[in-house]
Amino acid sequence: MSTRHLMIAAMALLLMFGAASAQAQAEEPAAATARCSDCHDQAKAFLSNPHARGQVVKNDVENSVCETCHGDATEHMQTGDKEKISVPRGRKGSDETCAMCHDLTSNKRSHRMGFHANSDAVSCLSCHSVHKSKEEPLLAKSGTALCASCHTQAASFRNRPYTHRMGGGGMTCTTCHEPHGRPGKDNLKATSSGESVCLGCHNDKRGPFVFSHGGQEAGGCTTCHEPHGSSNPRQLKRAAVSQLCLECHSPIASTHTLGSQPPSFHNLTQARYQNCTTCHTAIHGSHRSPQLLK
Q1: Cα 204 from Cα 132, distance rounded (Å)
Q2: Which CA distances in Å does 45 have to 50, 51, 198?
């Protein structure tokens, strides 16, 4: 074969391999440059999601952000098969996905062992909307509406005349309650100084007092008050003040009484003695009167 023929054959081979290489290069970028947001609106909404913080590039979220929870998406992009991508659901999805990062455990809180720990009945995804939510921290509904879907106490805020005004001033169920509180622990929050959460708003009732009200010391605010709403003024548990006071300050025959008994001149059949707080005005505690008179 002549030199000319050899050169022609070599050029033909180069052209053939070049065309194959160009075709391969044309096919690869399509998969390599594909974005989750090309097909999924959830990925577009992820731009303002705290899970994507620091991962937004050119007004788009890196695929690696989505793959943190959904796994490698290469095969899913190539085939379009929904079975080739992981979608966390229920207890298993929450345990194996959410709890891998959100695994906080302290003396009072635990995501894995709390009141709302992942179970067949409730999981992270029951309360949180991971991709998009107008409520913080990524709640599926507003805090009060979300709690009301399971907890019937929330109905008291709508149906009772005397109650905490939910929504006013930003107050929600989680203002007082710790949603991830641990079983066996009080699920009420505390102030930064470790006091009752009630004192965070009702700071005029804060002690310590020289003469404390025993009921407040023994059982706290809920000894006398209904925190979720009451038919009685000041959210009291009883309609008449005397009924409430006499639950502890009872003139019974037994000497085992929680509080001191009313003195003999208190004729409890007379109206003047039935409203105890007419005289005992310092009902939450006093610095001057052991009878809480002032």
Answers
A1: 41
A2: 11, 11, 38
Query: Taking a C-beta distance cutoff of 8 angstroms, is the pair 167, 147 a contact?
Result: no
For residue 289, CA distances in Å to 122, 202, 212, 276 come to 51, 22, 10, 15
Phi, psi of 144 (to 5 degrees): -70, -45
Determine the Cα–Cα distance for residues 15 and 65; give it in Å rounded to an integer: 41
DSSP 99-148: HHH---B-SSBBTTTSTT-S-SS--HHHHB-SS--SBTTTBSS-HHHHHH
pTM score:
0.77
Of all helices (H) and strands (E), which one includes residue 285? strand 285-286
Domain ranges, ordered by start, for the chain: 90-176, 197-286
User: Would you say 210 and 292 are in contact if contact means Cβ atoms under 8 Å apart?
Assistant: no
Pairing of strands 60-61, 285-286: unpaired
pLDDT in tens, 162-187: 999 887 777 899 999 999 998 876 68
Q: What is the mean pLDDT of the chain?
A: 84
The Cα-based distances of 286 to 197, 207, 280, 294 in angstroms read: 21, 9, 10, 6
